[in-house]
TrEMBL record:
GO molecular function: endonuclease activity; exonuclease activity; metal ion binding
Lineage of source species: Bacteria, Pseudomonadati, Bacteroidota, Flavobacteriia, Flavobacteriales
Leader sequence segment: none
Name of this protein: Metal-dependent hydrolase, endonuclease/exonuclease/phosphatase family
TM ranges: 12-32, 38-61
InterPro entries found in the cross-reference section: Endo/exonu/phosph_ase_sf, Endo/exonuclease/phosphatase, TDP2-like
One Pfam family, short name: Exo_endo_phos
Originating organism: Sinomicrobium oceani
Domain of life of the source: Bacteria
SUPFAM superfamilies associated with the record: DNase I-like
Amino acid sequence: MKKLGFFNKIIFFFNTLFAVLLLLSYILPYVFPKQFPLISVLSLTVPVFIAVNIGFMLYWLVQLKRQFMLSLIILLIGYKHVGAMYRLSGSSESEEDGIKLMTYNVRIFNAYGWLKDNDVPEKIVELIDREAPDVLCVQEFYYTQKDAFNKNYPYQFIKYTTRNNRTGQAVFSKYPIVERGSLEFPKTGNNALYVDIVKGKDTVRIYNLHLESLHIVPSKEHISDENPEMLFKRMGNAFALQHRQVEIFDEHRQGSKHKMIIAGDFNNTPFSYVYKRVRGTMKDSFIEQGSGFGRSYDFDYFPMRIDFILSDPDMEILSHKNYSELLSDHYPVMAKIRFGKTPEKKGE
């Protein structure tokens, strides 16, 4: 510090502060939201802490100052967090045999006109038809589109969860569905659907999971106008509800005798207890084959990844794709998955 000027000493002070905050954030996936809901909200800030520490590291490197080691060491300690936020390279397309699964929160097909375009429902259907997933998991499905996918998806399961039977979740499949059901979460319109699909000799369970919403309007203007204390408290309550929903889900999946894929809108980040518990030992398609930030939610402040596709450890993620078409407050996510790993060649 003796060789640092006054300005750089101030910079290093803030560098140290953000390095400590990032280090402490590494324990957030182990904090129970039911017991510490407000602390759990801080998991949303982890991408900011990572980005700021990268900025400090580059600042010192340009000046050839050894202080860059502070942020570098903290980032290396949490390399899994960094990898969950950004991937350098991956595969968005694959010609190998597997199923293509898409998850998409369609925000009830713009029924209340959040987007100015009048043809949003048609554009969503066109996008799905063009990308042609074999299995489609939809959150916030709207009853007006119940026949939109009949042509390409002979096997369907739609469950309306609101009192007026207009909104809910849905799974559309090109492969036969031999078992289906819904996990009802208390005091909410959110739930989890499950279907067992048959492809060849394989039967695989697919969950379409929609956890409690944080009810954040994704714009700087709205967030800056809202009372910070009320916003923070509401998000903490939502995280606590998510914890209970994940417990219900976790208990149910223990009874499945099939390999499984979990897809959906978790309304939480990869740095949270909720994600950690749902994922367990499963593979995250973005971490396996994604690239860039993997943004799945339209949020002004930073790229948020809250929509996931997770697969059984014995499955192989062949590709992962994030889309940029803004037809909802979420972006669709698709992965191609092979049910069994590629056999290793002799001598390898």
